[in-house]
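quick one, three chains, predict together pls
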Amino acid sequence: MKVIFLLAATGILFTTACSSHASNATPTSPSISFQSGMTPGMSGSAMPGMSGMQSPPASASATAADPPAPQGGTAVAIADFKFSPATLTVPVGTTVTWTNQDEEPHTIAAKDGSFHSPGMDTHGTYSFTFTNPGSYDYICSIHPFMTGTVVVTK
Amino acid sequence: MSAENDPPGMTRRQLMRHGAWFGAAVVLTVAGGEVISHVAGSAGAAQQSTRPALRFAQISDSHIGFNGPANPNVTDTFNHAIGQINSLGYTPDFVIHTGDLTHLATPGQFDQVKQMLTGLNTPRVFTVPGEHDSTDDAGQKYRQAFGAGTRGDGWYSFDIAGVHLIGLVNTLNMQKLGHLGADQLEFIEKDVAGLSSDTPIVVFSHIPLFAMYPDWGWGTDDATQALSYLKRFSSVTCLNGHVHQVFSKTEGNVTFYSGTTTAYPLPAPGQGPAPKPVTLPAGKLREALGVREVSYTKGQQALALKDQKLA
Amino acid sequence: MKIVNLTLRIAIGASLAASGVVHAYLYIHGYRDIPTVGSAFLLQGSVFCALAVLILAGGPGWLQLVAAIGAMGSLVAFALSRTVGLFGFAETGWQPSPYAAITVVAEVLTLLLVGTTALRQRPRASKDDVDVRRRSSSVEMPR
C-alpha cells in the first residue's frame, strides 16, 4: 500500500515537472551575479507600467556671462580645440589669462603639475602668475591632444 | 523477531525498515536529479535557438549641462532616449551609460543625471565616467554619485546569463589618448583569469579601446595590453561612447562598437579642425542621436546590436 | 490526532516540494551555469523533492530531521549569497523575484512544521517501540 503510494507520488511529481516545462511560457530573466565586495551600478525602476518619461527638470547651468577683461595679463585664446598662441613667451611675474571661446569646456593642466585650472565653460577664463622661469608645457585635461607651452624668461 | 525488553538499539526489522527508506531517498534523489538535468538540457536547447539569453541597452554621452546651438535642450533629448529604452517592448536586463553623463561635472548635474537614470525601466543601471565627468577632481564627484561598489577609480565587473562584463575607466591620467593605468590592467588580468575561454566577454569604456582617430584623442594608449589578456576568449565585444557617432571595427577576436550620443553630434574623424559640437539643420538633430540594443543568444558567438535613432 | 499528524506531514511535504521545485526551476533557467552554486541548486532540488515524497508517504522521523537540516542550510546559503558571497557568487536583495522570497518562506515553514511535529511527538515513543513493549510486557500494576 505504501509502495503504491510512493510510486504514485513519484510519478505525479515527475510528470508535473516534465509537463510544466513542455508548456513553459516565460522563463525568468537572468539575474546579475556580483563577486563579493564589488556591487557596482544603481537600481533602475524595473516595474512594468512605470513611465520612463519624466517632466524635464529645469535645465542646468546656463552659459556664463562674459567676465570683465583682465587687467594687464597676457592672453591665450582657446578656439577650435587649439591654444593660440601655441607658445607664449612672457617675463617672470607675468599673469597669463586663458579664455575659452569654444562651446566645449576646457582646462589648463601643466604637465609638471604646477598649475591646473578648474573646468572652463564657454567664455570662462583662468589666470595664472608665473613666478619661476622655465618652460611650462600644458594640455587640456579633457582633450589631452590639445597642447600649449608658456616660456617664462628671467 | 521481537525483543523481550525495551531494546536499547534497534531490531533487525527496524534496521531494514529505516534502510529501505534511506535507500528510497537515495534512489529518488538520483532519479530526480537525472530528470531535472535532462529537462535543463532540453529546455536549454529549445530556448537557445529562439530567445536571447541576455538583452541590454546602451545609452551614452548625455552631457547634462550643455547648452549650445548644437542642442539647446540636452535634458529633453536624454529624456526621450530614456523613454525610448522604456518602450522597447521588453525590459532590458540592465542598461549601461558609457560616460560623459554630465557636461561640467557639477554636483547639480550629477544629481540630475542620477535622478533621470532611475526612470529607466530596468533592474540595474551601470555607468563609466567620461572625461567631462572628471574635469576638476580626478573623478571624485563622479565616484560619489556612481562609484559605490566599484574598485579603484571606478572600474568593476559582473556576470549575467553566462556573460562576463567589465566596466573600465580610461578618462583619468590621460596624456594624449585615453589611459587605463597599471592598477586597472592588473585588475583586468586577474578578473578574467578564471573564466573559460568560451565565456562571452563584454567590455565597456568611455573612450574607444581601439585607435579610431588618435589626433583627436579617440584611442587608448594602453588598450593593447588590456586586450592581450582577452586574446584567448572566443567572443569579445567592446562598447564605447565619446565619439558621438556609431562606428564599428573588428580586430581579431574583438569587435569594437562606438555608440552615439543623446546630446549633440561630433564630426566624423578628420572632417573638420577639431571634435567640436556640430550644429545640424533644423529638425535633423534627432537623427544623429540615439540608443542601442544589445542581445546575446547562447550558441551564437557574436552579440547582436541594433542602433535606434531618437524618434 | 491522526488528522493533525497527516496535515503536518502534508504541509511539510508541500513546503519541501515548493523549495525543491523553485531551486530546480532556477537551475534549469540559468543557475546551472554558475560554478559550485549551480550544482548545489540541482542537489537541493533533487533532495528536497525526494524528501517531500517520502515524508508524504509516512516515512520515519529522521527524514524530517534531514529536511529541517536541509532547510536550515538553504537559508544560511541564501543569507551568505546576499552578504559576503558564497563560492564567489553574490546577488542583491530579493532577486530573482519572486522565487527567492517563495523559497525562503517555504524553508522557514519547513523548519516550523518539523519543529511542531517534533514537539508533539516527544513524549511518545516510536510506533515500533510501543509495539515491542506491548508484545513483551506483562501487566503493569498501577502505583
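The first helix of chain B runs from residue 12 to 48.
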